[in-house]
Give the backbone structure.
Amino acid sequence: MRTQVAIIGAGPSGLLLGQLLHRAGIDAVVIERQTPDYVLGRIRAGVLEQVAVDLLDEAGVGDRMHREGLVHEGFEMLVQGRRHRIDMHLLTGGKSVLVYGQTELTRDLMDARSALGLATVYEASDVTIGGFDGAKPFVTWKQGGREQRLDCDFIAGCDGFHGVCRASVPKSAIREYEKVYPFGWLGLLSETPPVNEELIYANSERGFALCSMRSMTRSRYYLQVPLTDKVESWSDEAFWQELRLRLDAEAREKLVTGPSIEKSIAPLRSFVAEPLRFGRLFLAGDAGHIVPPTGAKGLNLAATDVKYLATAFIEYFTERSEAGIDHYSARCLRRIWRAERFSWWFTNLMHQFPDEGPIAARFQQAELDYLLNSEAARRTIAENYVGLPLTFGE
Ligand code: APR
Ligand code: PHB
């Protein structure tokens, strides 16, 4: 088998890249190790920046997102029992974000791909990649016990943090920056109306909490928990009880609880690999970087990597220009580091760090006091939250 671009991974990055390439007449095959249902079963964040919304429109998969997504013009920060609204719309000259679950987005991309009859291999085991340091990259895998091989011009590593692509790069050619936070997020999804029209990010003495949503009838809540906690030891009742204790009186009163549809604990990590290009292999999305979820940047960064990568491939195949592929890594990394910084900073601002002692807690309180009472500081939060532009001044 032969194709122009072999895409490893059918998460949002791989599927969006496939869609953008298809629209430009470039042939690609997506190779995924799981089943479609498994991919759709992973519950992840659901806040899209305008830049990501525009990209999904450009990819031709935006209809349901616009019908069902919720436009949010602000969010709330709950600090010392008081809520403060960050009016994104006002502070950024009219910008907003769209709340639309990553699961739904992935489903839209999968549906679009199958409607177009584009080649996707699911349940590929033992995926390996090779030849990317020369002119003839290839991918091999097993399916139903049979060895398969795909030759290509480029490999797009869209296979997430635990994928095979980054792991196939020689250690001497890559540098990895990593910070693991000393807590996780316990998430709960329920068929209940959200407690508030906008998201609430809560800094409480008992730990961080987040009230989010998927629709007006489905809520997503999170609690900061110690890394040693096991999801099995958190009953739904214990979750709701703890959430109530971290919210303000009004939210406590309004909170509608119900059985969980999904409950899981995710560790928090900041991670960046440099560079993102190795000959004819390119890393995009979680394969190249991870942000803690506090700033809701993971999916958005994946989308912008893919935009830069699709543009680079299109330039290569249609204009025979290598400028885009040569600049890919540096262009992505600049935006990635800015989002990494914001996510790290917002995580530090909103969580409890008991090991850092009482002075760290006082610094955090003073910073929050300053931020919430300074319009310039609130604008900084809003500007980062709605997302930085695709291109910065050079
Ligand atoms: N071979 C083939 N596919 C693989 C392999 C492999 N060896 N390893 C992993 N995969 C697949 C995974 O099963 C998964 O479906 O690659 C896909 C990667 O998808 P994601 O982890 O969702 O990564 P990405 O598409 O970059 O999406 C980024 O996901 O974690 C969130 O915050 C992140 O929202 C962001 C988004
Ligand atoms: C979510 O809805 O899952 C969500 C929203 C905002 C975040 C993180 C997660 O910052």
